[in-house]
Amino acid sequence: MKQLGTLYFFCGKMGAGKSTKSIQLALDKHAVLLSEDEWLSSLYPNQIASFEDYLKFSTQIKPLVKKHVQNLLCVGTDVVMDFPANTQKLRKWFLEMSSEVNARHQLIFLNLSNEQCLLQIAQRRKEQPERAAFDTEEMFIHVTNFFEEPDVSEGLNILEMHGKK
Predict the structure, then answer these.
(1) Is residue 1 part of a domain?
(2) What UniProt keywords apply to this chain's record, in alphabetical order (predicted)?
(3) Which pTM was predicted?
């Protein structure tokens, strides 16, 4: 029987380092990296001006992404997803994606304080000025209102990582 791939995905507040960690993990695991930001900016160029736009387009691509990821897992390819798993509903989508094809999964929870995240967001604004309009403290506060910490009761394999104190 062919070995299935493993699905890796991340949970963490805005600015916790999900994208940075996902790139490193994909390199370490020789896995396919899928970035929600890349998919959305390619499919919907200049159409995401608000958090509501993001939610709308993110929801639209999910069926296609799910099928693609399941196909990769079924041929034995590990997949690292730089898509947020920041609510129970989103984590359920990731879990179903892997369990429907009997693949393993790993949720990496980047458990950083609000202060740590805001410092990293400020740094990101300097390094990526094109993100300055979205990477604001106001947006962080808005998005963090939706954040739900993962819990083992959700049926997830959780690896929790903490930021520097």
Answers:
(1) no
(2) Cell cycle, Cell division
(3) 0.92
- The letter for the amino acid at 54 is Y
Unique residue bearing structure tokens 């991340």 = 10
pLDDT digits (tens, 9 = 90+) for 79-126: 999 999 999 999 999 999 999 999 999 999 999 999 999 999 999 888
Return the closest-CA partner of residue 87 out of 163, 156, 161, 164: 156
**Which CATH number does the domain housing residue 32 bear?**
3.40.50.300
For residue 58, tell me if it sits in a domain.
yes
Task: Identify the domain containing residue 93 by its residue range.
Answer: 6-162
Beta strands 104-111 and 158-162 are parallel
Task: Tell me how many domains the chain contains.
Answer: 1
- Nearest-angstrom CA–CA distance, 20 and 25: 9
